Amino acid sequence: MRQGGSLNDVIYKKISDDIMDLTLEPGATVSVQKLADMYGVSRTPVREAVIRLQKKELVVIYPQAKTIISKINLKRIQQERYIRKALELAVVDDFIQNSNAQVIDAMENMILIQKNCISKKNYKEFFAADNEFHKIIFETAEESLAWATVNDVVSHYNRFRILSTKLEGIDRKIISEHEEILNAAKEKDVAGMREILNAHLNKVKSELGSLLNIYSQYFVDAQ
User: Fold this and answer.
1) 58-73 per-position pLDDT tens digit
2) What fold, for 2-70?
3) In sequence order, which residues have a C-beta less than 8 Å from that of residue 120 and are 6 or more positions away?
4) What residues have CB less than 8 Å from 118, skipping those under 6 apart?
5) Is the pTM of this model over 0.70?
6) Spatial separation of the C-alpha atoms in residues 171 and 28, rounded to whole Å
């Protein structure tokens, strides 16, 4: 019983991760059997995972017909980004107050990892390091629950973010902005860090047009 529950969680996380990093593409048609074959497990944990993913709006189930990986919803992107920005800007004061040399080193390390990912075009690891960079801000502010809340609700926004890293020059722009955030942290500049973060988290409109031209099939409410 315990082992089965553990397997359910593992398969749920694996499918969820593959949806989030676009290994399972938005709009792709799947089935419980197809996913079971893909992950080398029985149908039972996959069926359980698909039900959980439907509740998070990562899949759409058409009973007795098909299951589709949810397309990236433009309205949800804006709503999720609003939540992310509101919470992250709110923790800046506590982050600056609690920041120390160890925190600065950890943030610098994430930037180095991102730079190494660029030459390899490793978007998955680049995005993971991007998330870790921002996670450090929340955890240093002692607001881990806020970070967990963010990650629980930003499924459409995060898929947009990982897709945007494939645009020419965006990865280097992200690194440049992270370096600006880091410099503000080093200087204990609350207002400066908040201003940079605000701009950093407001890039949706500037990137959306290019993404819609290249990946229009991944989006809904694109008109």
Assistant:
1) 999 998 888 999 999 9
2) Arc Repressor Mutant, subunit A (1.10.10)
3) none
4) 126, 171, 172, 175
5) yes
6) 26
